[in-house]
Amino acid sequence: NEILALLERMNARRIFFGFESGNDAHLAKLKVGKVTVEMNKRAIDLCVGRGFKVFGNVIFGSPGETLSQMEDTISFIKWAKAHGVSRMLMSVMTPYPGTPVWLDGVKMGRVSETMNWDELMINAEQSGFRGFVVDPSINEEQFSAMVKKALVTIHAFKWKKLKEFFVSNPWETVRFVSRAPWPLIRRMFVRKST
Fold first, then answer.
1. 138 CB neighbour count, 10 Å cutoff
2. Residue 184 clears pLDDT 80, i.e. is over it
3. How confident is the model at residue 192 (pLDDT cuts 50, 70, 90)?
4. Beta carbons of 87 and 36 less than 8 angstroms apart
5. To pair with 6 at 20 to 30 A between CA atoms, which of 52, 68, 89, 133?
6. Considering just the CA atoms, what is the radius of gyration of the chain in Å?
7. In whole angstroms, what is the distance from residue 25 CA to residue 119 CA?
């Protein structure tokens, strides 16, 4: 609460968290045992309760992450949105040279120093499995399905939010929609998964 009080005095309005995962075992690997899912939930409740807009990110496809752990992350996304998180983002683990994740990717045969480096820039919506360091027990179809499920959960279209955005700034809304790439517009209108 002291940190939040300090942020209030600094006139901060938004806080962005790297939540990374909704599974404690996997989160322990990503955050070196320093953070739990319960701690992330408590942080959300504290920040939202003090009036901050909370944004967050999760990562899919880290070495050793199972489909079940990805499902836990999707459940966490749903919980976070229901508890006031303004926006959630997701990314796919990128193996940068020199990192432990890169070394895992080399062992898996998914990355190499002679690879096409553009393969590391593939985003979660594009097909292609090379460059990802997803656990070898998970195939491309399973991973793609999980990523799509997460995207639908994150980007479920809400007419109320569009109306609020339009009412608060109609020109910016028109500008945003006219410049948005087709995949983003398509994602905005995906029905929420059950």
1. 17
2. no
3. very low
4. no
5. 89
6. 18
7. 29
* 27 Cβ contact partners less than 8 Å away, ≥ 6 residues apart: 20, 21, 35, 36, 37, 40
* Contact present, 73 and 21 (Cβ < 8 Å): yes
Start-to-end CA distance of the chain, whole Å, equals 35
How far apart CA 57 and CA 22 sit, in angstroms, is 11
Report d(CA 64, CA 150) in Å as an integer: 18
Indicate the SS3 state at residue 124: coil
> Using CB atoms within 10 A of its CB, is residue 2 exposed (0-12), middle (13-18) or buried (19+)?
exposed
The residue among 55 and 139 whose pLDDT is bigger is: 55
